[in-house]
Amino acid sequence: RSLFAMVAVQGKLYAAGGYDGNNTLATAEAFDPASGWTPMPTLRHARADAAAAVLDGRIVLSGGRDDDGEPTDDVEVYDPEADRWESFDGLETEREGHGLATLGGTLFALGGADGEGSLLATSESYTGDWEPYSWTLDPARARFGMVTVGDGVVVVGGFSAFGPLQRVDRFTTDGASSSSALAPLPTARGG
């Protein structure tokens, strides 16, 4: 499988959605280091190139490309205790190849590509509803790494209109919701 989303929760890895070379997938698996891979309940919607993050111990799976190959704003959440996927408030913008991270109890979706094939520089946040947020990628990009580190979210590489990037940015919510460039990757990469 390629183009799947992955997160870690309570000592386990979770892989959801993706593409097998022919079909967009609605399957998900969990990896426990003590016992290996086990199947999980099927996603509500097949999706590839989605993003995942953890909010309050639950896995949030956002956007991606549906089985018709179209970007989606659909979001679903997996509760490990209840062992099921449930509906969640949809994104403001259809996004595929975007990043999703949690910082200070708030979800942030950033970048990706929209239904017109345009790369996105915009962001949105979730604190009960999805709303546009002030973080902006420069340049706009998709298929980058995005992770929470300390009191910020770090965006690494990705693809812009000019190809793969070496760029590394750090976004914070301290007052003005600022961003700063960090040392670039030695080799441009995205995916």
Q: Your description of this structure?
A:
The chain is mainly beta and about 190 residues long. Helices cover about 0% and strands about 40% of the residues. It has no helices and 18 strands. It has strands spanning about 5-10, 10-15, 30, 35-40, 50-55, 60, 75-80, 85-90, 100-105, 105-110, 125, 130-135, 145-150, 150-155, 160, 165, 170, 180. A hairpin with a 6-residue loop joins β17 and β18 (about 180). It starts with a strand and ends in a 10-residue tail after the last strand.
List the helices and strands and how they pair.
Blueprint: E1 5-9, E2 12-16, E3 28-32, E4 36-39, E5 51-55, E6 58-62, E7 75-79, E8 84-88, E9 99-103, E10 106-110, E11 123-126, E12 130-133, E13 145-149, E14 152-156, E15 159-160, E16 163-164, E17 168-172, E18 179-181
Antiparallel strand pairs: 1-2, 2-3, 3-4, 5-6, 6-7, 7-8, 9-10, 10-11, 11-12, 13-14, 14-17, 15-16, 17-18
| Percent range for β-strand residues | 35-45%
Largest sheet strand order: 1-2-3-4
- As a whole number of angstroms, the C-alpha radius of gyration is 16 Å
The major sheet is characterized as:
4 strands, antiparallel
The SSE string, one letter per element, is EEEEEEEEEEEEEEEEEE
Number of helices: 0
Any low-confidence stretches, pLDDT <50, length ≥5? none
The portion of residues assigned to helices is: under 10%
> What's the N-to-C terminus distance?
14 Å
Whole-number average pLDDT?
95
Shape: globular
| Secondary structure: number of strands | 18
Question: Given the helix and strand composition, which structural class is it?
Answer: mainly beta
